[in-house]
Amino acid sequence: MKSEAFAVKSVEWGEGWIQVKVPLPFSLRWVNSYLIPEINGGYALIDPGLHTAEAKSVWEWAFARYGISTTDVKRIVLTHQHPDHYGLAGWFQERSGAPVLMSALSHEYAVRMWGEDKSMSQAWVRLFARHGLPGDLLTQLEPHLESFVSQVSPQPEVTYLPLEGTISLGGREWEIVHTPGHASGHLCFYNRELRYMLCGDQVLPDITPNVSVIPGDPDRNPLLSFLNSLKRLSRYEVEMAFPGHRNPFPNFAERLMDLNGHHVGRLAELEGWLEQPQQAYALCARMFGKRTQNNIHQLRFAMSETLAHLFYLEEAGRIKSVEHASGILYHRTGGPHSV
Ligand SMILES: [Zn+2]
Ligand SMILES: [Zn+2]
């Protein structure tokens, strides 16, 4: 990512919208938060960012620049529950008293991940162990997952958004579009007059949104959900898409096709490697290379995404898994190749 793109911390858009680039301590660099002026005064705040000192100082800077005070935040709307979007919601709620709106499915994940009984971290270790992750990497996983707790605290009190229907933002009606795949319960918001799509992390320019198998998640085939969500989004005419990362972009329809093509290609590649039985970790190392070596954060995404592809292929009857004492092995069935 070019550094000058991030040197600009905020961008003003039509209708008085303000895009604030809230910094992240990962290679994604920043998350986009959007301030949308409400007709009765104040702002709706979309995806406030991760709870870090650096993020809070950018918010201080942005509020000073635009003459906004924390109590001007009237509603906090979350596209999904990932820490880089959800993390500051509770902190903003404490200071503004604003309701935090998100889907119940998204909130369930947040509770399982960072609630009292943090059972999900151990479930993640068990899942990756069965799929061949070496012991030295497994021991890094649990502390890594738990390191997010402070970055999503305090946890907000949540008001649920339905998976379909409308929400009023900035005096306009926005259609709620349920788009699972990148995250369970992920929502996009579409306005027909402006042809604006707030697309969270379901569709990103330049980079491919992560699609992950999550232990204990009711969705056992998140890649199928992701591809179906791309199809659902292709029904909307979009002039400008406002994503969770990188910058707003106009070529939404083209991007949907690119993302679909990327996964179709990856599925075929993976299937081609399975003449001989292999474990998911070996396939992950082959597919993602260096990213699996020394960065546990990247490795978790790479491993969960490899599993999302393997689960998809197995559901489609193109590969089969066999459980051995040493873990799970996948091999080709020699069935049809088409996706
Ligand atoms: Zn996300
Ligand atoms: Zn994100």
From TrEMBL:
Residues 30-245 form the Metallo-beta-lactamase domain. Transmembrane segments: none annotated. It catalyses: 3',5'-cyclic UMP + H2O = UMP + H(+); 3',5'-cyclic CMP + H2O = CMP + H(+). It comes from the Bacteria. Signal peptide: none annotated. InterPro entries: B_lactamase-like_C, Metallo-B-lactamas, RibonucZ/Hydroxyglut_hydro, Sec-metab_biosynth-thioest, WH-like_DNA-bd_sf. Pfam families: B_lactamase-like_C, Lactamase_B. Counteracts the endogenous Pycsar antiviral defense system. Phosphodiesterase that enables metal-dependent hydrolysis of host cyclic nucleotide Pycsar defense signals such as cCMP and cUMP. This is MBL fold metallo-hydrolase. It comes from Paenibacillus roseus.
